[in-house]
Design goal:
The complex is a heterodimer of chains A (160) and B (760).
Chain A: E1 3-9, E2 12-18, H1 24-31, E3 50-53, E4 56-59, E5 72-74, H2 87-94, H3 104-117, H4 123-129, H5 141-159
Helix pairs in contact in A: 2-5
Chain B: H1 17-22, E1 37-43, E2 49-55, H2 57-60, E3 65-70, E4 93-94, E5 100-106, H3 109-118, E6 120-125, H4 132-136, H5 146-149, E7 158-165, H6 168-174, E8 177-185, E9 197-202, E10 207-211, H7 216-227, E11 234-237, H8 253-266, E12 270-273, H9 276-282, E13 287-296, E14 302-312, H10 326-330, E15 337-344, H11 359-376, H12 382-389, H13 413-424, H14 426-429, E16 438-440, E17 443-455, E18 462-469, E19 475-479, H15 488-500, E20 507-511, H16 529-556, E21 563-566, E22 569-572, E23 575-581, H17 582-587, E24 597-603, E25 612-624, E26 630-640, H18 647-666, H19 683-686, E27 696-702, H20 719-722, H21 724-736, E28 742-743, H22 747-754
Parallel strand pairs in B: 1-12, 8-28, 10-11, 14-15, 19-20, 26-27
Antiparallel strand pairs in B: 1-5, 2-4, 2-6, 3-5, 7-15, 8-13, 9-10, 9-12, 13-14, 16-17, 17-25, 18-19, 18-24, 21-22, 22-23, 25-26
Classes of the chains: A alpha+beta (160), B alpha+beta (760).
């Protein structure tokens, strides 16, 4: 009962044959070797496996790979362009938003989806949008600063 | 001196930041090896049960299953984690739901899971003890094995740790007033985002284990002992660890040995990664009861402090109950103290450490008594009272009874109190005892504070560091620190750079690998890295610097004392144009210049308990008397860190520790049913606070420049969690006049307590 599957991940096309019950997370981590996407709870509740599917944040532990057939997926490995970090990645380093780093990939992708939807969010917008992404290290304060800082930087670059 | 620092004290972005924002960073569960098998553990569904028979035949016949282990196949050697050796790797008597009964290695995760389902176990259920009363009553079921409970470590289900300083009886006899309170905490979990993982690999010569642990050297000792192989044939590596908080210094031992045994049996690498549920069952902070009694003179001077702490320690009792003595010993000036700690086996999951361990729990009732006594003795506010009664530099402060005579080396508590009070606007907000800041309809705003101390490294820690200069002038820096989020790789490299003169960008950190770094006894625990390992880095750096200057002195034909190093260039002080770079010096190795290897070994045997960190916390809370919901409006945490090696990292530790404390105080509890079964074994049901729930958390850094630490630093990252429960309870008391003596303080409990009260 294997299924054919076409995925575009970080701009690269993959043709895969998968069991229909395979989770998208397992394809990304095991078949494609993109281990930046983490496995934290396998039950839709911690957010460390967040990836973008057609630019929307999705928990990869909770959807079947076949559901993503034909779609474009972005993982943390695809955030930088031509070796240049995304402003969110720069800001996470600069503002001290990274500690153990296990939640960081999911945080970055959810934050990217937020800034794509809402280029100038308020602090409260950030808090509401990211509430599905848990972090035990930072207390979130520097994550919020980093996202607001990145939003400003992206805005500044647009106006140049 | 401090003003001349070039690298230490700077908010340098962390060295592991790039790896972690790009997905390059490898955690144990991200690793894979050629022909790797997948391990899976069969766990007991019962809280207390004897295993009568295990039938593995069906599982063995499943295609793809390569090995099955039960208690019959593992070494009959007791292992323990920090406290009593009380566990066998796989058990013939389950002591909690989730206890490890059998293990499988198979070609895929799915096959391993299926094989686990095919193992038939015949259990005989035994009576259980899920409360202290049940575990302590006559005829209570005996939980640890007879060979442990009959040893001198235990009496039945109890291990005891009592200490006294001064004379407690005299202390109470001298007192004008005696005050007493009680306190209770629920079972909680450290909940790092990364569930624990392990990968084991044998070759002909040795065992290699990658473990998501805070303490690779500690686990090397444990594994080497259980497997009977020498330490130099046991390599333990901790790659990036996805959070620890104390939870990954206990509860990794069985997992590591299981993976190693499966790998040995199959002669193939075995990965064993636990699910969130398995991780939650591996180790917890136990439910704890406290009775705390204080004797005071009529002017508020303390004459006696007596804390009794009893821990419902679970089926494997690895909690360090003795840490409960710290608040009694090193916060207030009190000549007569006593701590009675009791660790009782119950049928909960194993108990272990959580950021601040039992000191976090003792601090809350102590801050209640501080409030009560200050109010009764006529003080107008708690801050003045703490200032008057706090410990002083030079006071005896060691907690271990074999370390009598050590005196406190530094204390920044007054500055923490003053700057914290200013940041929360105490002067205008504090209206007096039990007088809320503001009442708006059903909402009452309260202000509260707490004072705290915590250890900067516990006793008996040895460590070291090595730095090796390469021919191109770069350096390899070998340090045992584990990078589990606190930024130890970065701060270690900063200290080394400062001490040696080697530019930070030329230093590569090689860490947490027992095969290459100096031995480190306990690992990343007890806020020890910024204390003892930073000192090791400083001394190794100074050693390298001395060697560089000696060699450069010969090349430049001056005395070494005439030289200095800046940005990788060595120059003559009186004539800076006479210079050479570290790179050009090291390139002369082929012309007779000796290689440079800086090294250090350190022990804190003689000074560990002179060094304590201090802090003061302040909170504004709003209690909705209609719903019972406590909303934290603003939180200020001021911490004496000795010297901030990296202020950006220090702020992150303060904010993160406070956030953890708020979640533990207001929300988290692992609940159990009457058969000892966990009721909320998932992140959704366990309910940590989220980004949307937190207030503004303002970190304040106070620097007391401790004379013992590297550049004055003290380890402190547990402390931000220590002050929270007491501070929030005091703020709620200010808002509604009700004293909560247990955590979590849930809306349900608040509402229930409010039923008894009518506000005028």
């Amino acid at each position: 009962m294997e299924k054919e599957l076409n995925l575009t991940v970080n701009g690269k096309c993959y043709e895969l044959t998968v069991e229909p019950n395979t989770l998208l997370l397992d394809i990304i981590r095991n078949d494609l070797g993109l281990t930046g996407t983490k496995k934290g709870c396998s039950s839709n509740s911690c957010g460390v496996c967040t990836v973008l599917v057609d630019d929307k944040p999705v928990l990869a532990c909770s959807i079947l790979a076949v559901v993503a057939d034909g779609k474009e997926i972005t993982t943390v490995e695809g955030l930088a362009e031509d070796g240049k970090l995304h402003p969110l990645q720069d800001a996470f380093i600069e503002y001290g938003a990274v500690q153990c780093g296990f939640c960081t990939p999911g945080m970055l992708l959810t934050a990217k989806a937020l800034l794509d939807e809402n280029p100038a969010p308020t602090e409260n917008d950030v808090r509401q949008y990211l509430k599905g992404n848990l972090c035990r290290c930072t207390g979130y304060a520097k994550i919020i600063e980093a996202i607001l800082g990145a939003a400003k930087e992206i805005g500044r670059r647009r106006t140049i | 001196m401090t003003s001349e620092l070039k690298v230490v004290g700077k908010s340098i972005p962390r060295l592991d930041g790039y790896d972690k924002v790009t997905g390059v960073a490898k955690f144990t569960g991200d690793m894979w090896q050629y022909r790797m098998l997948y391990g899976k553990v069969l766990r007991s569904p019962y809280a207390h049960a004897k295993i009568l028979n295990i039938d593995t035949r069906k599982a063995e016949n499943l295609e793809g299953v390569k090995a099955i282990l039960t208690h019959k196949d593992v070494p009959h050697v007791l292992l323990g984690e920090f406290t009593v050796d009380d566990a066998y790797v796989l058990t013939d008597k389950a002591r909690h739901v989730g206890d490890e009964v059998a293990a499988v290695a198979a070609e895929s995760e799915q096959i391993a899971e299926r094989a686990i389902e095919l193992i038939d176990v015949e259990y005989e259920q035994l009576p259980i003890a899920m409360t202290l009363e049940e575990a302590l009553k006559p005829g209570a079921p005996l939980i640890p094995p007879a060979e442990v409970s009959n040893s001198n470590l235990l009496i039945g289900n109890i291990s005891t740790m009592c200490r006294e300083w001064g004379d407690i009886e005299n202390g109470f006899a001298e007192a004008d007033r005696v005050f007493e309170t009680t306190y209770h905490t629920a079972v909680v979990h450290t909940m790092p985002m990364e569930p624990r993982a392990c990968l084991a690999y044998w070759d002909d010569r040795k065992l290699t284990l990658w473990v998501s642990s805070q303490s690779p050297f500690y686990y090397r000792r444990l594994i080497s002992k259980v497997l009977g192989i020498p330490e130099n044939k046991t390599r333990v590596v901790s790659p990036y660890v996805g959070g620890g908080f104390g939870g990954k210094i206990t509860g990794n031992g069985k997992q590591a040995v299981i993976a190693a045994l499966l790998a040995k049996k199959t002669k193939r690498p075995v990965g064993l990664t636990y699910t969130r549920q398995e991780d939650m069952l591996s180790v917890t902070r136990p439910a704890t009861d406290i009775v705390l009694k204080a004797g005071v003179k009529s002017d508020g001077t303390f004459t006696a402090l007596h804390g009794k702490m009893t821990v419902a320690g679970g089926g494997y009792n690895w909690n360090i109950v003795s840490t409960g003595e710290q608040s009694l010993r090193a916060l207030l000036r009190c000549p007569n103290c006593r701590f009675d700690g009791f660790s009782v086996y119950t049928n909960h999951p194993p108990s272990g450490c959580l950021r601040g361990v039992q000191n976090t729990i003792m601090n809350a009732p102590l801050n209640e008594l501080i409030y009560t006594i200050a109010e009764e003795m006529g003080f107008s506010n708690p801050i003045d009272f703490v200032k008057k009664t706090r410990i002083q530099v030079g006071d005896e402060c060691s907690a271990d009874d074999d370390r009598v005579g050590l005196v406190l080396s530094s204390c920044g508590l007054d500055e923490c109190l003053e700057r914290g009070a200013k940041a929360i606007d105490w002067e205008n907000k504090w209206k007096g005892w039990k007088t809320p800041v503001e009442v708006k309809g059903s909402k009452r705003v309260g202000i509260g504070m707490s004072a705290l101390t915590h250890n900067s490294a516990q006793s008996f820690y040895g460590s070291g560091a090595v730095v090796k200069l390469n021919i191109d002038g770069t350096a390899d820096f070998f340090t045992p620190v584990t990078e589990l989020g606190q930024g130890a790789m970065t701060t270690q490299a900063q200290v080394l750079s400062e001490a040696s003169g080697i530019p930070l960008e030329d230093i590569r950190v090689i860490n947490a690998d027992t095969e290459v770094t100096p031995v480190d006894i306990m690992g990343q625990i007890a806020s020890s890295s910024a204390t003892i390992r930073a000192l090791a880095a400083q001394l190794a750096g100074q050693d390298a610097r001395r060697q560089l200057l000696e060699r450069a002195a010969r090349e430049l034909d001056v005395a070494p004392e005439a030289l200095d190093i800046e940005s990788g260039t060595i120059y003559v002080n009186s004539d800076p144009k006479r210079k050479l770079t570290i790179k050009s010096l090291m390139e002369k190795i082929e012309f007779g210049v000796e290689p440079v290897v800086g090294r250090s070994t350190v022990s804190n045997l003689h000074w560990a308990q002179k060094v304590w960190n201090y802090g003061a916390h302040f909170a504004l809370v709003e209690v909705d008397t209609g719903t019972g919901i406590v909303k934290v409006l603003k939180y200020v945490a001021a911490h004496d860190v000795g010297k901030a090696l990296n202020p950006l990292i220090v702020e992150g530790q303060i904010q993160g520790g406070v956030a953890m404390g708020l979640s533990l105080t207001l929300s988290e509890e692992l609940m159990f049913g009457t058969a000892g079964e966990p009721l909320n074994l998932s992140l959704i049901d366990y309910h940590m606070l989220t980004i949307a729930d937190y207030p503004e958390i303002i970190p304040i850094i106070v620097e007391s420049n401790d004379p013992m630490g590297a550049y004055g630093a003290k380890g402190f990252a547990e402390a931000p969690n220590v002050g929270v429960p007491g501070c929030i309870a005091n703020a709620i008391y200010n808002a509604i006049g009700i004293r909560f003596r247990e955590i979590p303080i849930t809306p349900e409990k608040v509402l229930k307590a409010l039923r008894e009260v009518k506000y005028g």
